[in-house]
Amino acid sequence: MAIPHEVLAYGWIPFTVVVVLILIFSWFYIRYYQDHAQSEVSSTLTAILALSVCLLTVALVPVDIFLVSYMKNDDGSWKEWSDNEALRNDFKQTTAVGYYVLYSMVAFLAFAVMPFMYFYYEEKDEDATTRQRMCGALKYTIGFLIVGIVLLLVGAFAPLKQPSKNVTHWDKKLLYMKDELLHTHHGETSLALVMGFLSFIGMVIMITYTAYGMTSLPFSMLKGFKNSKKEHLEVSQERESVEERARMIRAKYMDGRAMSSHDRRTLARLEGEEKLLVRRERHLQAANLGWLNKCLKCCRPFEVVFGIFFLLFGLLIIVSLFLTRQVLIVNLDKALHSLGYKAGYALSKPQLPNPINIIMVYAQKVFPLDYCLFVAIVLYFLYCTMAGIRAISIRCCWIKLYKIRPRKTMPQALLFLILMLILTMLFLNIMLFTLAPQYVMYGSQHYMVKTYHTVYINGTHGNVTHLTNTTSVTTETKVCSTDVPEDKCLMTRAAVFVNRFFYKVWFFGACYYWGTWLFLGIYVIGLGVSIAKKRKSVVDEELDSSDDDSDEELIST
């Protein structure tokens, strides 16, 4: 029996809508941040394509979860169309191919297209031809291609951990993955190793930027900006004070005497401060007269509401990762009940409650509420990552490389930014198993347990005593877990890939586990920094002394 059309419609129509929305979102997102004066069509299209593909890898997960959940009735029995194992295998293969295609595109973008386009723009020069730029970019891109090829070869031929052919030697905690671990191939392992490497870099980015962005974003909304009129008055008074001090130094040498080195340095410093104060005063005056500042004042109550929402939502996520009702949950759950570091701390069965997981499982019963919540979680992490990047800037070993600003971001910085977001979204696919393990593995699936009870009754017929028995059957519906036979529940393809990868390359699973603890620690530190941080000025971005256009503005004035 084929899959009913309504099932395909429920699963793939929302995904198609999400694909269109992702393309629209990516286009507006890139256009909002890029510098239109220096942008190129090639770099713009590459950034839009890369951002869309990375978001699609995450958007496919709820479709995967919906399809496995929709195969079951509420009482835990298979629906008529899904009771065929061959049909379920076809479904698993189709979904797996979708993941393979998207992850292969991500790998190709990360190791070939994005580096090539980055260096292609770096080679831009008035005298350079297109061919020269392409040759120069290809020369640097070869290094990235070599890294990707090496990872593929290692995944295909390296002696990674393999399951025993004798099932009796298996750990009981791994029996739920018996068939999945035995039916694997080198191509998937190679791709998984590449994705693991990229996800590891994404974990570092998420720890550095997203954890801080989860605190800086809501508190910047709650605190708002300084009063521009009051700040304008303070800056004017400070400028007059600096001008007076500089005038007094110049007055000391009105008679033509040579200026001392100390006064010369002091005067140079004061003149620099005066120029910055003049610029700040001019921008503040424009802000006071501009319509945007007036609109921000009108929208201030909504900004506070969104700030509270983002703060509470972030705390809920942190609670789901760490603490709820005075009980350590998923991370401690993994420490106590996982398969250990040699299995990548893979959690075979969550033992402790998790609020995000509970919400998502119940939300799936009202389709497509869980899809909307899932998209909200993804957008929240994306928005927090951007907030962290804008606050910290793109850095390498504490050296600032690029600053991200709306409508003023260079093409190289934009490509770098999108690559960081791609890696972050890849790690988010892993973090989802910590946020909502039951939901991501089985959705809202249940299974039916039949219990047979036999009752023996003594009966007398005339002078003969005989024994009769009556058998009754009771059924009970339970939530799917890793303790049940594989034919009772169907695991999502996303969960299968992650568990297989953690089993074969436990190092990455262990790093992700401890990285989550580090993420929580950085969040706590960022919370303290965000609380102590002062309110920003409405003109801080325009007056960043490290921006390239600051010097141009000074020259023009």
Automatic annotation (TrEMBL):
Keyword tags: Cobalamin, Cobalt, Lysosome, Membrane, Transmembrane, Transmembrane helix, Transport
Annotated family: Belongs to the LIMR family. LMBRD1 subfamily.
Protein name, UniProt field: Lysosomal cobalamin transporter
Keyword Disulfide bond attributed: no
UniProt-listed GO biological process terms: protein localization to vacuole
GO cellular component: lysosomal membrane
TM stretches of this protein: 12-33, 45-71, 97-121, 142-160, 191-212, 304-323, 373-392, 413-436, 505-526
Domain of life, per lineage: Eukaryota
Membrane topology per record: Multi-pass membrane protein
The organism of origin for this protein: Pocillopora meandrina
Subcellular location: Lysosome membrane
